[in-house]
Specification:
With 493 residues, the chain is of the alpha+beta class. The protein has one domain: Glycosyltransferase. Helices cover 42% and strands 8% of the residues. The protein has a 4-stranded antiparallel β-sheet, with no helix packed on it. It is globular, with a radius of gyration of 21 Å.
Length: 493
């Protein structure tokens, strides 16, 4: 029987139900966006695509080039001392300024993990244009300016259910990863200023799903850096209530079983385990291992059965595989994790998943049908979460030197079930295709016409351009009642 999880009422969130005042604010911020938006930085799009089309390139060289590609474009788009970055692309439901904060918060962890991975004396990152990029200065400047109430780029006073709660977790992780280079070099006043901004976050209310992990991440970082106890253990226990077995979490009491397990739950749990290795490590490691034991079968050299929301985060599919290797799980060998990570990056990037210095808003190239309304121009940088873990663990796990091992689909057919989520997984060796078939309906309130991917109508598109607020149709196929997903990803075309 499915696990019953006690539900809480969903709050009314202003940006989901904007009034006239909200639309006026959106319009004003959109004008600011237009004023500060720069030309698309496409200088190295073809270079990065060719590199990831080359089977002979080393994984480490590809990852380092991806960091350089990202950092160089970030310097181009960033404004106000690296506190905001206006990337080109479709807006979210948030204000344009919040979208621009995402352009910083979702990029800095990649720069931070690169910095953390450097051995010996610090040397600046080399951009693909051959110029030096001072990563330490970028992160230090951003953290000091973004937390300074008198600075133009101040990240602001947060409120309950604020999107910036989500972004604060990545900013806190950046602070933790770079503590030797930045935090420990700051004076007391600077440390207090940064800590004060983050200290507003733990008491705030969030959506009752994976969002609980954002405030927890901030709390664990604050505890590690300042010694003050901020961790709300009831929030962590609530996350564990979403656990249904076989390594899977439900994303909220009535939420989906989908890839948020990968780039939401296990990514955050991995970092919590790194920040405080004594905090419930047995559960975190076991859940990760149990998940990977079945999930590793999803990978093929050309795609994976992608289901749920936020399809644009697809480059992060290998997060738990790399994390499980670092936790010395017996569920996967490093050679298989390496092959899954590399082929996943190569397949999507070689087919257009990077453009103008950022992951595209789609599965391959840009595709507005697949951009959720909560996703903005820089939201897709969560696609670099697997890269972040690879950079962080690559040196100590031997990832870069490991010999690749074949994926399960490259060894033969398979057929098994994941009881906790009522899913049937089928691998066909001859076609190298993996299919995930859900054995129960998420909903029966759909028709053949409503199940298809919808396109935005012209009126909504025009209002989106003027207001700067997303007005796109919702195309989460799980919620449309689709039960069968294939690594050929035919649903997305």
């Amino acid at each position: 029987m499915p696990k019953t999880i006690a539900a809480t009422p969903r709050p009314t969130i202003p940006y989901e139900h904007p009034d006239a005042a909200m639309y006026f604010k959106l319009f004003k911020e959109n004008i600011v966006r237009l004023r500060h938006r720069k030309s698309a930085y496409q200088q190295h799009d073809e270079t990065i695509r060719k590199l990831f089309s080359n089977d002979g390139a080393s994984l480490k060289a590809q990852c380092e080039a991806l960091v350089a590609y990202t950092a160089e474009a970030f310097e181009h788009y960033a404004v106000w001392d690296y506190t905001h970055a206006y990337y080109p692309g479709r807006p979210s439901q948030q204000t344009a300024r919040t979208d621009a904060i995402e352009g910083v918060s979702r990029v800095l962890p990649t720069l931070a993990t690169w910095l953390h991975s450097q051995e010996g004396e610090y040397t600046p990152l080399q951009g693909l244009n051959g110029k030096s990029i001072d990563v330490v200065n970028i992160i230090r400047t951003a953290l000091l300016a973004g937390t300074d109430p008198s600075h133009k780029g101040y990240w602001g006073k947060l409120h309950d259910y604020d999107q910036r709660i989500c972004e604060s977790a990545d900013l806190a992780l950046t602070l933790w990863l770079t503590k030797a280079h930045i935090w420990q070099q700051l004076d007391t006043q600077q440390q207090q200023q940064i800590a004060a901004w983050f200290e507003q976050i733990p008491p705030l209310k969030t959506l009752d799903n994976n969002w609980q992990l954002f405030t927890l991440t901030v709390s664990f970082v604050l505890k590690d850096l300042t010694g003050k106890e901020w961790v709300d253990h009831s929030k962590y226990q609530r996350i564990k209530e979403f656990y249904v077995g076989d390594g899977w979490f439900r994303d909220g009491a009535n939420g989906n079983y989908d890839y948020y397990n990968v780039w939401g739950f296990f990514y955050s749990l991995y970092w919590i385990d790194q920040i405080d290795p004594d905090y419930d490590a047995t559960f975190i490691h076991q859940a990760m291992s149990d998940f990977v034991a079945g999930y590793r079968y999803f990978f093929t050299p050309q795609g994976l059965p992608l289901f749920g929301r936020s399809a644009c985060y697809r480059l992060s599919a290998a997060v738990p595989l790399l994390a499980a290797v670092d936790q010395q799980s017996s569920a996967i060998e490093i050679g298989e994790a390496k092959r899954a990570f590399r082929t996943n990056l190569q397949y999507f990037i070689a087919n257009g998943a990077l453009k103008s210095g950022a992951p595209t808003q789609g599965v391959f190239e840009d595709d507005s049908r697949l951009v959720d309304n909560y996703s903005g121009p820089a939201s897709s940088f969560w696609s670099l979460r697997a890269l972040n873990i690879a950079l962080y663990v690559g040196g100590r796990t031997g990832l870069w030197q490991a010999q690749e091992l074949p994926l399960e689909i490259e060894k033969g057919d398979f057929d098994f079930q994941i009881p906790a989520i009522d899913a049937h997984v089928i691998g066909t060796f001859k076609t190298k295709e993996v299919t995930v078939l859900f054995l129960s309906d998420y909903t029966q309130e759909q028709t053949p016409l409503s199940r298809r991917l919808l396109r935005q109508n012209l009126a909504d598109k025009a209002l989106e351009v003027v207001s700067g607020r997303a007005l796109r149709p919702k195309n989460n196929l799980l919620r449309k009642g689709i039960t069968c997903y294939t690594s050929k990803m035919s649903h997305f075309f």
